[in-house]
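Forwarding the complex inputs:
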Amino acid sequence: MFLHNLKYELLAGFRAKELVIWLLIFPIALAVLFKVAFGDIYEKYEVFSSIPAAVVDIDRNPSLKSVLDGMESSGEPLMKVTYTDEEGAKELLKKDDVEGIIYAGADQLTLTVSGQGMSETLLKTFCDQYNKNAKIITDTAKKDPSKIAAVTSILMKETNAVKDAKLVRGNSNYYDEYFYNLIAMVALFGALIGLTVAVDNQANLSPLGARKNCSPTPKSLSLAASLISRFVLQTLCMTISVTFECFVLKIDFGDRLGLVYLAAILAGILGVSIGFAVGSIGTMEAKLKQTILTSVLMIFCFLSGLMDAGMKQRIAENVPFINRINPAAVITDSFHALNVYSDTKVYTEKIITMLIMTAVFSMLGFILTRRRKYASL
Amino acid sequence: MANTVVKIDGLVKRYKDLIALDHLALEIREGEVFGLLGPNGSGKTTTINCLLSLLAYDNGSIEIFGKPMTPTSYDIKREIGIIMQNVAVFDELTVYDNIDYFCGLYITDKAQRKQYVDEAIKFVGLEDFTKFYPKKLSGGLLRRLNIACGIAHKPKLIILDEPTVAVDPQSRNKILEGIEELNRQGATIIYTSHYMEEVEQICTRIAIMDKGHKVAEGTKEELKKMIKNTETISVEVRGLTDEIREQVASLPHVYLAEYTDGILKVCCSGGKHNLIRVLGVLQEHELHIGRVYSELPTLNDVFLEITGKALRDKED
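Prediction (whole assembly, two chains):
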């Protein structure tokens, strides 16, 4: 009887136009839109780690030479430096062989660029930062030379902090985060089909639910078949979404694609269970529940930074607990962990959180829906 | 006497201050086509929902096949077929798949199920539509599909809650004939409606409900005997004076004579040859007589006399 239920729940699910539109076509269309919108930036971002730059008068600033050598030895240099004289630098800039010319003054750096773009901005940021640090050290030397060592140590710590972070072995592209967020959004859209599990099995929410409740099939069995069918459908949708982004749009998911698939699938299942739980609470009409669910999802997404990139950070600083219980934040964190850390400690932590949340939401749905008489229909 | 299939005793259902069912008692026997007749809001559907254990009630007891009905009475539910007021099918499944799905909730044996599904399709006349999706069906065909989903597993007790609402006459007749056939095949039927003609046509016993009360119960004949009126005579006549009307009113068995808009309405209680006597008085005064009707009481008359209002809502 379970397999009979599952078969038809799957069949009905595969034929549901809403499912195809919201869980397949819409995310794919959005991903294509992202790709087109970011296309130019995205490609440039791929090479920004080695911005070609010319450095003039390096002999006037030995400290700069040390910094640039240090950056080069880090393995991921920000700049690909050519040391030359002014004429040579201008020639290189004219031919677009370099993005900018850094003039090494004794006290500070000056920058000449030929255009306005990300590379130029990064070169300017580098020069500004260098000048700021140089001024701090110079001022300290003038006021209290004994503190130079301490100040230098603090500045070095900043550098070390960056070096100590375990960057992922392959991909560290900032723009990939948008696609990860998109996958998280698709996962949470699964809540909409999760809601139908509750609606289609409760007599007070749909005629279908009423008819099912009149049958001799135990409600727990009917619910389980419905829920599992939605899990399967959402798993398929998530797999297609990740595959499309990875192999059609050529989004770089790094070299741990299997873990990306795993996180996406679990996120989708979590989304379905959220919908199931919300659909099971209270006696409101199905449409009202759908409105509530959509609002809840929007709040989850807003707090996780899907709409405002800085929100999650602000939450992390002020109410970090929210990020640990917000499903949207947990989902994006799992992708972020794959994006940033080379080990899987944080990733595993997020996966376990997702599993626990899925279990809690599913149990809540079962408890609230199972074996119920209704006060009104 | 046939076995009792459904026994409802002292059923009370409240929605806050509104009493939807007020100490309702019903007994439905095996092989009956039992009609629950009443206007919208009289408590018919609430009774059915309580009966099916979908709705929690405040007091009373419900037994089906001699056992208390609960949400987990799966052995009882296996023998019940339900056709709800609202069509309850999957929009994404074909006619065949829908019937197979719902039949499969009751029948696990595949071969038997296939046979039952085929028989149900034939029974409701949807042979040419098995691969259609519900949205492609007309209202009448959709109702037939709804019925097929409810009866495919060959239940002993079939509950039909207003199955002919918004159905074309052809489909309505098909549905009513189908219900009679199901009854002939041995099923006990509970049929709710506010269409008295349907109830009169197919039901062997009827309970009339109003405001959560059972106001009358019995066969059609028994119900009609409960009221004073046995015959209503209407005569189109011109120039009827009050004197002549009073003469008609004084005839034996006549308890009411009204003259409005050129029509004389005479209500009789018992007696024979009432029409001849009324026409005799009119001819005696050489009045011009137009069309003449003699009507036996309907269930609406029964309802009207018991409750003081018409059975059918104005919009119906």
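The interface with chain A takes residues 15, 49, 52-56, 71-72, 74-75, 77-78, 80, 82, 84, 86-90, 92-93, 97, 100-102, 104-106, 108, 149-150 of chain B (CB under 8 Å).
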